[in-house]
Amino acid sequence: MAKQPKATRPLTHAQVWAALDRLAERAGLSPSGLAKQSGLDPTTFNKSKRVTGDGRERWPSTESLSKALAASNASMETFVQLLGDGARGGQSVPLIGFAQAGAGGYFDDSGFPAGKGWDEVALPATSDEHAYALEIEGDSMKPAYREGDIIVVSPATAIRRGDRVVVRTTGGEVMVKELRRRTAKMLELASLNPEHPDRMLDVEEVAWIARVVWASQ
Fold it and tell me: Residues 197, 9: contact at Cβ < 8 Å?
């Protein structure tokens, strides 16, 4: 009796989107960063777009997938391999654009991510359960960070002189600087871009400060 071929299981919605997330991760990008680099609307690959308002699964089009592969210099064979990948060693952390970080509703009083509007990105594991990611926008942090780079911020990690930090002021301004000096009364911050001035802040002006622990470069 002839042996029956083993039935092939169809691809699932979750598998395809997980592979796209891994494709973005390999390129050091968030899903929205990959979409932008592919010449697509930045929200094309966002998790909020993967299911319609009435609960129907939305799949990436072949055109958007083709553009994503080209933008990340990956082949279809690579994508097929990503479809079969098991669980990744990293973790998913909340992600928003850097410009959004200064708006209200994204952080609590301790500087932990809160509220709605966050995306998600898979990055190397961190022991801080409150860690989050920011996507750099614009050229104000060159040459340290370029537009589209992602930085992981850990509110629980100890900060030392020379560390790169994210600082939010009580006025809602958010900046990435190098900590030059910290006293009980003031914060001295060095700019990452030589064309931008260093900053001196009174402690009363600082809402919170957190260390940058990883960057996609």
Answer: no
Q: 13-26 and 76-84 helices cross at what angle (nearest 10)? A: 120
* Helix-, strand-, coil-residue percentages of the chain, each rounded to 5: 25, 30, 50
Scanning the structure block, which residue is given the tokens 């092939």? 8
| DSSP SS3 for 7 | coil
Over residues 1-26, the mean pLDDT reads 70
- Cis peptide leading into residue 143 (ω within 30°): yes
Which residue, chain included where needed, has tokens 């991510």? 113
What the block records as the tokens of 97 is 């654009």
Give the model's pLDDT for residue 68.
Answer: 92
**1 or 63, greater pLDDT:** 63
Q: What is the pLDDT of residue 5?
A: 45
| Half-sphere exposure for 94 (CA within 13 Å, toward CB) | 19
Residue of 100, 92, 115 lying closest to 166 (CA atoms): 100
Count, in order, helices (H) and strands (E) of the chain: 4, 9
d(CA 120, CA 18): 12
Query: Taking a C-beta distance cutoff of 8 angstroms, is the pair 62, 47 a contact?
Result: no
Reported pTM: 0.54
pLDDT one-digit tens code per residue, 91-109: 677 888 888 888 878 888 8
Cβ within 8 Å of residue 68, ≥6 positions away: 20, 23, 24, 34, 35, 38, 40, 45, 60
Cβ 94 vs Cβ 119: under 8 Å:
yes
User: Residue 137 — φ and ψ, nearest 5°?
Assistant: -125, 135
